[in-house]
Amino acid sequence: MSAACRLLFAALTCLALAACAEHAGPPDAQRDPLLVFAAASLKESMDEAAAAYEATGAAQVEVSYAASSALARQIESGAPADVFVPADVEWMDWAGQRGLVDAASRRDLLGNALVLVAPADADAGPVDPGDAGALLARLGDGRMAIAMTRSVPAGRYARQAFTALGVWEALAPRAAETDNVRAALMLVARGEAPLGVVYASDARAEPRVQVVARFPAASHPAIVYPVAKVSASGHPAAADFIAWLAAPDAGEIFRRHGFTVL
Predict the structure, then answer these.
(1) Residues 142 and 233 placed together within one structural domain of the fold
(2) pLDDT tens digits for range 134-173
(3) Does an H or E element contain 251, and which?
(4) What is the spatial order of strands in the sheet that 144-147 belongs to?
(5) Domain limits at 173?
(6) Is residue 63 part of a domain?
């Protein structure tokens, strides 16, 4: 190859490498976002927490919300989640028993309370959640909006609370079970159900509902939101994000949205 050809080849190679580098961008820009699977009740607070984490210059975060049961089964099926935040310890235990989450990264993050809500524009005063007659009278011809009582944490807490209070047998035929707690909240907010059972944080997030009762804490297991890294995740920011969620800045966000910080 002549000297001129070699020079031309070198010049073209440099141009090609420069073009590739420009297209590739900085290394951090090429990193996949951190994918968080979080319980539906965390929507507003986790959105704000994820944005605050990104603002520190850390990794980009994407959050997928659904019932804890649905998210756990998606992880089992190979969904590419990096961090799992269900609304109860049972689904985290379920995932842990199957090796789906990293036990060393697990920690209890948040707590919540269970409340009974009615539409905000309803002429509804307080009601005793342990008085079946009063609850049935308040329902009238309507139904009680509750997340699925056999699989979704909010629904399980509701069934356990009503059972402990001695009224579940009377109320069960009047339950309208939904895929997740936010769907139950929407039924009440739209006036399609006269009563519904949701978390205190859900009631705070939705101005179209009012709280008419709080369930005694002793009527159901403690409401705990654990967090853990998904075992199959190789994302370098997963551990850092979990640690940040437990830090004071994130704690202030969660408190503002009605959660307790554990």
Answers:
(1) no
(2) 999 999 999 999 999 999 999 999 999 999 999 999 999 9
(3) helix 248-256
(4) 175-178, 144-147, 195-199, 114-119, 209-214
(5) 114-214
(6) yes
